[in-house]
């Protein structure tokens, strides 16, 4: 049988609640211990995390909340629709896990068919899509890297890799991966960098030659991903900026429809067909880019330093469009 079939059979075996040694699973599946590890990584990549207990009586097992549930699924229409929406978004945005989510949705559909002795219509592959730009990546290669990173995070193992930042040359890094997240279709790692001795964000596509080390790390118990990302408008962090903007229609309506941070406040100025937007945000580079994207429909009230920075950049943009004097 192929990898998918064997991975599912291994999942079915583990759903009993027992802890199985790799050797036991290899014998039951009639494969090598190395193949069992491959199936585990495949399941991890699909979001089904097979846990490992170390020691004499250790082995692979499933979390209690996952045991004995595969054949007992009873999805209602709202849950099915939610899965189809997620699958459509991931597929159209070329997410690294899109192929596997589509496969999982098809398998869930078949499970429902067998359970209720009915035949469902074919999966609608155009239920919901994501428009706009998407990352220019090799999804399979990025997924292979993501599986390694997730494994390192789960096992608290240090990671050695080559990383190329936007500015600068490729540098060897040793990271302690704390979390991963997706922003505008790109996957990022939040990790402690031994070279810089601080927690930073690393774009997965810029990481190469990822190797899991035998050395483990202790995570900073004070670290909170929600605190780390709090009030960030995007990837960049930095000091908080108390922002006051006057924004005119039609972009005022776009801002009304968006939550950039939980602390934002919008005050209507009907006589000017505008709003006064106030918020405390982090990520100066992306704040500047966001304001510039609104062109003449926005004016920075505070802080003064940011207002001057926007004005200077606007003058530079204007100068780049002016024809040189004869």
Order of H and E elements = HHHEEHHHEEEEEHEHEEHEH
Span between N and C termini? 75 Å
* Helix residue percentage: 25-40%
Quick one: biggest sheet? Answer: 5 strands, antiparallel
CATH-scheme architecture of the largest domain: Roll
Low-pLDDT residue intervals, each spanning 5 or more residues:
none
Percentage beta strand: 15-25%
What CATH calls the topology of the largest domain is SH3 type barrels
Strand order of the largest sheet: 6-5-4-3-7
Number of beta strands:
11
Mean pLDDT: 84
The helix/strand class is: alpha+beta
Number of helices: 10
Tally of structural domains = 3
Name the shape in a single word. elongated
Please report the first level of CATH classification, the CATH class of the largest domain: Mainly Beta
Rounded to the nearest angstrom, the radius of gyration is 25 Å
Structure description:
The protein has 326 residues and is α+β, with helices and mostly antiparallel strands. The chain folds into 3 domains: 3-66, Winged helix-like DNA-binding domain superfamily/Winged helix DNA-binding domain (Arc Repressor Mutant, subunit A); 140-229, SH3 type barrels; 241-321, no CATH class. It is 38% helix and 23% strand. The protein contains 10 helices and 11 strands. The chain has a 5-stranded antiparallel beta sheet with strand order 6-5-4-3-7. The protein has a 4-stranded antiparallel beta sheet with strand order 9-10-8-11. A two-stranded antiparallel sheet has the order 1-2. Helix 1 (3-14) crosses helix 3. The longest helix is centred in the first third of the chain and has 19 residues, at 98-116.
């Amino acid at each position: 049988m192929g990898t998918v079939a064997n991975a599912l059979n291994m999942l079915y075996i583990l759903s009993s609640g027992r802890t199985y040694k790799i050797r036991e699973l290899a014998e039951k599946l009639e494969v090598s211990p190395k193949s069992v590890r491959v199936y585990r990584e495949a399941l991890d990549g699909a979001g089904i995390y097979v846990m490992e207990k170390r020691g004499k009586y250790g082995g692979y097992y499933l979390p209690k909340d996952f045991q004995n549930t595969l054949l007992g699924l009873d999805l209602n229409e709202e849950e099915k629709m939610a899965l189809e929406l997620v699958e459509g978004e991931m597929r159209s945005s070329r997410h690294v896990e899109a192929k596997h989510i589509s496969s999982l949705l098809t398998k869930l559909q078949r499970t429902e068919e067998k359970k209720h002795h009915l035949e469902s219509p074919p999966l609608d592959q155009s239920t919901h899509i994501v428009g706009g730009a998407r990352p220019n990546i090799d999804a399979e290669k990025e997924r292979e890297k993501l599986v390694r990173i997730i494994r390192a995070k789960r096992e608290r193992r240090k990671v050695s890799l080559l990383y190329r930042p936007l500015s600068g040359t490729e540098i060897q890094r040793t990271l302690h991966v704390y979390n991963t997240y997706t922003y505008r279709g790109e996957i990022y790692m939040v990790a402690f960098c031994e070279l810089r001795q601080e927690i930073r964000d690393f774009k997965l596509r810029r990481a190469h030659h990822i190797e899991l080390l035998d050395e483990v790390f202790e995570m900073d118990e004070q670290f909170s991903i929600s605190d780390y990302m709090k009030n960030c408008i995007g990837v960049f962090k930095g000091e908080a900026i108390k922002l006051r903007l006057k924004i005119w229609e039609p972009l005022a309506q776009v801002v009304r429809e968006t939550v950039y941070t939980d602390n934002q406040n919008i005050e209507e100025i009907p006589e000017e067909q505008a709003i006064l937007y106030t918020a405390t945000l982090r990520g100066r580079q992306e704040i500047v880019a966001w304001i510039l994207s609104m062109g003449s429909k926005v004016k920075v009230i505070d802080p003064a330093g940011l207002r001057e920075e926007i004005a200077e950049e606007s003058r530079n943009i204007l100068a780049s469009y002016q024809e040189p004097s004869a």
